[in-house]
Design brief:
Blueprint: H1 22-38, H2 42-57, H3 63-67, H4 74-87, E1 93-97, E2 100-103, H5 104-129, H6 133-143, H7 154-184, H8 194-200, H9 202-225, H10 244-268
Antiparallel strand pairs: 1-2
Helix pairs in contact: 1-2, 1-5, 1-6, 1-10, 2-5, 2-10, 4-5, 6-7, 7-9
């Protein structure tokens, strides 16, 4: 399961999405996430699915790799689905047993929530799969540059976010290596109740924390040895440029977002 996590990983390719301006990709991703949570009808969800499908088609990333990004949050989707089925009471009762009542509204809400979470993860994973950590750092710094007026440490914040994303797959690999080493010593992580399994994770967390601190110290020494002093006096080797790809992608994405907004307000304020 740990190997299936795609957040923070980069998939090298020469595709339409890879060659886009990273700033545009971040803005489109933000609008895409907003559109998912604004979607309240089947038509709106189909519009979001269309945007995601087109992005996947032009990304050059294998579909199976994007679908695998859902696997780490599968437990969260199932857990939230169970809670929604048990505690969402609007609609007509379709199943009843003792104190448990499942309504058609709960089923509809559960299905939409599962689709919403899945599309959210796939869209976010697509951003990191098609954008290098360096490009993400430059894009975040460029988008937040107006905050320099109030002396906000934009460069440092972008660097922290980039390093955090970069270390996600590294820590996943380290965790998988520790688990395999503990299993080789006879550790059991699969039997017993939930408390026994949680207690069995302690031999994993301690060496993982030690490894994380060691890597952080090595990174700090490497940055000091290269005379890193923050954003002061720094220049860019590669400047971000907006091309025709970005304008086409923005037009298509914002058109779908405008359609979802119109659909949302038409449901809130129906024409009498």
């Amino acid at each position: 399961m740990l190997k299936d996590a795609t957040l923070g990983q980069y998939y090298p390719a020469n595709s339409f999405l890879h060659n886009m301006d990273s700033r545009v990709k971040i803005v489109i991703t933000v609008f895409y996430i907003t559109a998912i949570f604004l979607s309240a009808s089947v038509v709106s969800f189909l519009a979001c699915a269309l945007l995601l499908t087109v992005a996947i088609a032009f990304s050059g990333v294998k579909l199976i790799k994007i679908l695998k990004s859902i696997k780490p949050i599968l437990f969260l989707i199932i857990f939230s689905a169970v809670l929604n089925l048990l505690f969402y009471s609007q609609g007509n009762v379709v199943f009843s047993f003792w104190i448990i009542k499942v309504t058609d509204g709960a089923i509809r809400f559960t299905v939409l929530m599962a689709i919403r979470l899945s599309m959210l993860i796939m869209g976010s994973s697509l951003l990191t799969l098609t954008t290098t950590p360096v490009a993400l750092t430059d894009a975040i710094e460029s988008l937040l540059k107006p905050l320099n007026v109030i002396k906000f440490p934009v460069h440092e914040l972008a660097l922290i976010m980039s390093i955090a994303l970069r270390f996600i797959p590294t820590l996943m690999e380290e965790t998988d290596r520790i688990i395999r080493a503990q299993k080789a010593r006879g550790a059991d992580f699969e039997s017993g109740n939930i408390f026994s399994r949680a207690k069995a994770l302690i031999p994993i967390l301690i060496p993982l924390l030690i490894s994380a601190f060691r890597r952080a110290e090595e990174l700090s020494d490497a940055m000091d040895s290269r005379c890193y002093t923050g954003s002061k006096g720094r220049t860019k080797m590669k400047r971000l440029k907006t091309t025709y790809r970005d304008y086409v992608a923005m037009f298509f994405s914002f058109s779908i977002f405008a359609f979802i907004l119109i659909d949302k307000f038409s449901l809130l304020f129906p024409v009498i």
